[in-house]
Amino acid sequence: MAGPPIHELHYAQEPSVDEVPGPNSQRLLEKQSNVDSSAVAYPNNIPLAFEEGKGATLKDADGNVFLDFFAGIGVYNVGHANPYVNEGVHEQIDKLTHTVDFPTEPRLDLIEKLDDIAPGSLSGNSRVVFGGPTGSDAVEASIKLAKYNTGGNGLLAFRNSYHGATSGAMSITSNKKFKKPYAPLLADVVHAPFPYPFQEGRDPEASVEHALDEVQAIIEQPYGGLADPAGIFVEPIQGEGGVVTPPEGFLQGLRDIADDNDLPLVFDEIQVGMGRTGEWWGSQHYDVTPDVMTMAKALGGNGQPLSATLYKEELDSWGPGDHAGTYRGHVPAMVGGLRAIEYIESHDLLDHATAVGEQIRSRLRDAAEDDPGLGEVRGKGLFVGAEFVDEAGDPDKDRVEAIQQYCYEHGVLVWTAGQYSNVVRLLPPLVLTERQAEVGTEVIADAIAATADDAHA
Fold first, then answer.
1. What's the half-sphere exposure (Cβ side, CA atoms, 13 Å) at 262?
2. Distance of CA 342 to the CA centre of its chain
3. How high is the pLDDT of residue 457?
4. Phi, psi torsion values for 434, nearest 5 degrees
5. What does the pLDDT look like over 114-171, one tens digit per residue?
6. How far is Cα of residue 298 from the mean position of the Cα atoms in its chain?
7. Rg (alpha carbons) of the chain, rounded to whole number
8. How much is the average pLDDT of 60-82?
9. Which secondary-structure segment (H or E) carries 401?
10. For 336-347, how does the pLDDT look when each residue is reduced to its tens digit (9 = 90+)?
């Protein structure tokens, strides 16, 4: 068994919160506001200063213990301070940390392990290029790879998407407010609709048909708008967009269109990969294999910064130095990634995430039976979204903010998502115990009930 069982990883099975933010958190928050960038965002929603983390729990600077249903936006899939991961990382830091792209045992071991767990026909037929510390770096690499192999320059992405904050990744991201101050970005990018039956008022089959018709028109019709396509870029399950799970047939339809037009199909697995959804990769729920996939976030194991792009072997046409990056040789992060995969395998965390995720969604759906404002509960594994609307059926951002605040005050950290910020998004570590899931979800259910009267007043 790799490391201790999951029930030994945490401070507690239940939160323990007194005053929030406490005096030490307030002091650090004030200091941060005086010296840190004005781009700092997360403390504006959850005003806390953290001191320590263990498993699926966090302790703030005042000793309050929280259940973490956020996990650093899906970074801590094997929990905070996982001892099996930390042990390997600490040993590696004492030996060697940075090797650019010279070979090391951890680098080669992680590449081989990623090939082992790669989806479908990519397993046994893949190459990996490591990038800088963020998912955006992996997305940039995937864009370059697609252009390099096709000679095209046009990119097809999707509405409601998020791929990162660097120029190329931001270009295929759909958030206009996020992009506007930095425009113009990449010149030839077209965004097609992503099937979203709840918001579209369509049944799932019609939603898929509409989206695929648009994709096909953009790529194949003479007036489709994308002059020289280089690839199709999509999240198998949209994250920032609101945990939007596409209906069956959509990803397969994209696969067919890509094949018909000799285009690479690129899946962004940065948030949904590494076991988050109860499969290693989100695409495996749909039995569709991409040509290229990006990964980051949980890839570094214990928060170590690491990104990678995995792609089919026949796309490995780069020459030496055609793609580069200083931190593509961060060896401790590679050890962390390998050990995280081993821990997930050893403790059957894919099946665990599937079961506990369904436990959470089931409880939230029970809450929705008496609350028309909770419009839809969706997701896969421990990737859960709950979308809220007002009496007119419009997005209810205010209620989601109130739910987040209630949960924070009662010791459960949740985050938001969706183009209107009206989705409660849950990304707890895969090591979340059944008891923690029960306790945390009850707090969320209480928050839903406590905010219902105000929402329908």
1. 7
2. 20
3. 54
4. -60, -40
5. 999 999 999 999 999 999 899 999 999 999 999 999 999 999 999 999 999 999 999 9
6. 9
7. 22
8. 97
9. helix 397-409
10. 999 999 999 999
The whole-angstrom separation of Cα 406 and Cα 397 is 14
Q: Is the pLDDT of residue 1 over 90?
A: no
Break the chain into its structural domains and give their ranges. Answer: 6-68+348-455, 85-346
Tokens for 379? 């997701």
* Lookup: tokens for 33: 């506001």
Of all helices (H) and strands (E), which one includes residue 38? none
Residue 454 has pLDDT above 80, yes or no: no
Cis peptide before 184 (omega within 30 of 0): yes
Q: Give me 226's structure tokens.
A: 């994308």
In 134-262, DSSP assigns E strands to 154-158, 189-192, 229-234
Average confidence (pLDDT) over 45-53 = 96
The predicted model gives 69-96 an average pLDDT of 97
Tell me the CA end-to-end span of the chain in Å, nearest whole number.
54
Token pair listed for 78:
């094997």
For the domain made up of 85-346, give the CATH fold: Aspartate Aminotransferase; domain 2 (3.40.640)
Beta carbons of 378 and 393 less than 8 angstroms apart: no
Name 394's Cβ contacts closer than 8 Å, sequence gap at least 6.
Answer: none
| CA nearest to 60, candidates 111, 110, 97, 16 | 16
Cα–Cα separations (whole angstroms), residue 238 to 56, 163, 303: 23, 10, 22
- DSSP code for 63: S
Residue 182's φ and ψ, nearest 5 degrees, are: -115, 5
- The whole-chain average pLDDT of the chain stands at 97
pLDDT at 456 over 70: no
Contacts with 39 (C-beta within 8 Å, 6 or more apart), sequence order: none
For 75-90, letters b (16+ CB in 10 Å) and e give: bbbbbbbbbbbbebbe
Residues of 395-411 as b/e, b for ≥16 C-beta within 10 angstroms? bbbebbebbbebbbebb
Class of 6-68+348-455 in CATH = alpha beta
Residue with token string 């570094």: 300
CA distance 184 to 171: 9
CB 309 within 8 A of CB 292: yes
Rounded mean pLDDT of 337-363?
Answer: 98
Q: How far apart are CA 387 and CA 294, in angstroms?
A: 27
- Angle, alpha carbons 216-219-222 (nearest 5°): 105
pTM score of the predicted model? 0.97
Dist. CA 273–CA 306, nearest whole Å: 14
